[in-house]
Amino acid sequence: MDVLQVPSENRRLVHAVVPDGDAEFWIPLKSAYIAVRPTGERTIRYFVNRRFVDHHVGPSRYERTEFVEGEAVGPFQR
After folding, report:
1. What is the Cα–Cα distance from 39 to 18, expressed in whole angstroms?
2. Taking the alpha carbons of 14, 2, 56, 51 in that order, is the dihedral positive or negative?
3. What 3-state class would DSSP assign to 20?
């Protein structure tokens, strides 16, 4: 998250929204996100951005959890 420059107050929220487990991570060059795919799966489940996480919930469908003033706001807040 250092490379992406995720604000420090949002890092704990990213860890709360994206579940623990074995996963593969990609940071495309000149991109503003980190792609997270659970090991053994074909679909990227999360796109982590500086101020939100998009969670894959179906074909071409994502739900967004935003980080507002140190709190996670959205369907996957924990």
Report:
1. 14
2. positive
3. coil
Sign of the CA dihedral with 19 first, then 59, 44, and 22 last: positive
Pairing of strands 71-73, 61-68: antiparallel
Distance from C-alpha of 58 to C-alpha of 70, rounded to nearest angstrom: 28
Q: How far is CA 57 from the centre of its chain?
A: 13
User: Domain residues of the chain, as ranges?
Assistant: 8-69
Instruction: For residue 47, give the amino acid letter.
Output: F
Residues 5-32 pLDDT 10s: 888 888 888 888 887 788 998 888 878 8
Name which of 19, 10, 13, 50 is nearest 37 in CA terms.
19
> Structure tokens of 66?
């935003």
Indicate whether this model's pTM tops 0.85: no
